[in-house]
Amino acid sequence: LQVPSAPSQPTASSEGRRFTNKHSKKALKASLTLGILLGMFFVAWLPFFITNVTQAVCGCVPAGFFDVLTWLGYCNSTMNPIIYPLFMRDFKRAMGKYLPCCRRAGEPRPSAISLSMRNSNSGARAATSLKNVL
User: Which residues does 51 contact at the CB level (< 8 Å), separation at least 6?
Assistant: First the structure.
């Protein structure tokens, strides 16, 4: 008696590995981006909040130092628009569509009507009413 052997599927297993590799790379990149954003948030705002609590308890924090820590937090907010395009390809593409300085030479400029239609949930009915208005 011979036991039938299971057919080997090398293509399916290599596809599965490639699929897993691709998703693990995306997950790693997403984790890295999130880690950088959260790390910068904590580095920028944690001293402010600790100083704020200290000021409430003892009132011994100089006003200038408190202002510096407040501006450090504000600098974090200015860093987010820089960090997102550096690490997120989709964010880069979206900004490239709408900012004239980032648009490629052959891409058409989106009109205000197409932008509002894309963002509205009204669908074709809104298009008809916009044509009547214009």
Answer: 61, 65, 66, 69
Task: Render pLDDT for 80-129 as a digit per residue (tens, 0 to 9).
Answer: 778 777 777 777 787 777 777 766 666 666 555 555 555 555 555 545 55
Per-residue exposure over 102-117, b if at least 16 CB sit within 10 Å of its own CB, e if not: eeeeeeeeeeeeeeee
* Euclidean distance between CA atoms 74 and 5, whole angstroms: 66
Fill in the DSSP letter of residue 121.
Answer: S
Q: How far is CA 25 from CA 19, 29, 30, 32, 85, in A?
A: 10, 6, 9, 10, 18
Which positions ≥6 away from 72 have C-beta within 8 Å? 44, 45, 47, 48
In angstroms, the CA 96 to CA 92 distance is 6
